[in-house]
Amino acid sequence: MGRFRHGLDSSKIVAVIPLIEHGPNIFIGAGHTAAKAFFEKHGIVVVANVLTEQECQRSVDDVWRHLQELFNPDIDRDKPETWDSKWPSFSHMGILGNTRWLYPQACDNRQNVKIYQVFRTLFDDHELITNVARAGLMRPTKDIYFPSLGKTEDRENWKTMSNWLHLDMNPLTGRTTTYGFEYTAESHFQPSDDPLSAQNKSTNNGMRVRKLQAILALVDCREQDGGFHTVPGFQHYIATWTKSNPKVCLRSNQSSDPTTTQIPWDDPIREHIQCMPIRKGSLLVWDSRLPHGNYPNSSNQMRIIQYLHMAPIADEALRPFPLLKEDLPETFQLTELGEKLYGFKSWESDLAQHRFQEQKNPEILCQVNYERFERAIMKDRCDTEKNTSPVVEPTS
């Protein structure tokens, strides 16, 4: 086993997760005391059946609508030949572009009661907010059937990056990634040579306040389909790792994204990475103090997931992303719970009501307006391309 630079035995770091045939130990129902105990030990838990078969199918349909309406109207789920042109950015990471996923089932999943109960149990707090984030998709890379060719081919260039392992925080400064939420800290994404100034901000609370992240499996995500991997149990040792790796954290703080820390290629904790296949309809939640990432697809099936995080309204660093109800799909119906999770209504506590009355971060409001304009432009462009595409007459 490897050792850290200051002699810490890395073999003592990891609480290895017991795996079963189709993935890590799975719990049914978030209120189970065993599920929470498992999470406290490993920093990760999978809860099954938070979505029905029908909800999964509608979510997948939303993914294809998202691709066709915002990126390329000629993309066809049944024709891999169409999966090259104008494919969204960030595909090398298994992320479906940098555009928020605002489609009916995707929005409904964010107010799903079962999913809310998982986060409520793990946070031990009921006043929660949801983020508004993206979908994830990995194209198949092996033995893909192309109808126009009448044969199968491989696509190595569709593989995502290998060995991607990172923290969505800087454990030296406490800065954390806030994607999908409104952030409150000033200069949150500004590089700095002074980690102490960042440490002293109450909003840089990543090492003091529990942060949770999650993915929702919309199809069966087998190990060979690529997907999520992590170092389970690392939350118990991140403080020691940080003391042993101050230069890594300082470089992150000086970078263009000081809220993310890339784990060095030669770090011995990589010996303890575990892949996490999960079944359709399951929610995988992890502690943000776990190094994690995606590994490439090596199969003929797609991996499709939704990124979905929640946080307590009491978290000083985060607020609901300031969407307007007009930004949501016309056919989507907010529930009473959804009104609060999305931030359109206040929770009951005095703190929640105070937060509800706060002024919005002007930087985020500008971002929201820009994204709204960008979505409209993307949709108009795809509509134009769809209407001007040549009609192919069938051959007799």
From TrEMBL:
InterPro entries: Phytyl_CoA_dOase-like. Gene3D superfamilies: q2cbj1_9rhob like domain (2.60.120.620). It holds the Pfam family PhyH. This is Phytanoyl-CoA dioxygenase. It comes from Rotaria socialis.
